[in-house]
Design goal:
The chain is of the alpha/beta class and 186 residues long. The protein contains six helices and five strands, in the order H-H-E-H-E-H-E-H-E-H-E. 39% of the residues lie in helices and 17% in strands. The structure holds magnesium ion and zinc ion. Zinc ion (ZN) binds at residues 118, 120, 126, 128-129.
């Protein structure tokens, strides 16, 4: 037990060294927004089967570490046009997402505040499909407190454009799931 605790402390210290950004945050609250496919998990083409998911353990460990350093509010923001393309149904997607949310909490201690998803096609010209700001605006409207910092983790240009076009101040951090680095955060 003692040894286990020690191991945990050591790995926590090591993680701390790897994540200097966390020390800058201190006790403040952080709003963390993350894309799903290609960012939090591997981008299996229109995949909705949880068993086939490969989580991005680097990013998830990082978020988990941040949650020890600061009060975090974590939201997933994802385009899911596969629903409109009849690749999978909305209920299949919701079942998949509920398993994912449970997994994040059980394995990484990350509580997900909400999962925002756009089921539309580009030609629907909705206000929620990234890079449009609809989903992010919904999230900001849910939080009355002011955050020291808002970060958007994403792997694509639409994530970057959403962050840069938002009327809120959002730091975009591009995630390369194959070679995770935190260069943008330093
Ligand atoms: Mg993506
Ligand atoms: Zn939409």
């Amino acid at each position: 037990m003692q040894e286990k605790r020690q191991k945990r402390l050591i790995s926590s210290t090591m993680a701390h060294q790897n994540f200097p950004f966390a020390t800058k945050i201190g006790q403040h609250s952080l709003l963390l927004l993350s894309d799903l496919d290609g960012t939090l998990i591997n981008d299996a083409h229109y995949n909705s089967v949880f068993d086939l998911v490969l989580p991005n353990r680097h990013l998830l460990s990082f978020i988990s570490q941040l949650s020890l350093e600061a009060t975090i509010f974590f939201h997933i923001v994802t385009n899911q046009s596969g629903i409109s393309r009849n690749m999978f149904s909305q209920s299949q997607f919701l079942l998949y997402v509920s398993k994912l949310v449970l997994y994040l909490e059980l394995v990484y201690g990350i509580k997900t505040s909400s999962v925002q998803y756009c089921p539309h096609l580009p030609e629907h010209q909705c206000n929620c499909r990234k890079p449009m700001p609809g989903m992010v605006n919904t999230i900001f409207n849910q939080h009355s407190n002011t955050f020291m910092h808002t970060i958007f983790f994403g792997d694509s240009d639409c994530d970057r454009d959403l962050a840069s076009h938002s009327s809120f101040s959002i730091q975009f951090v591009r995630i390369n799931i194959n070679s995770f680095s935190l260069i943008d955060l330093l």
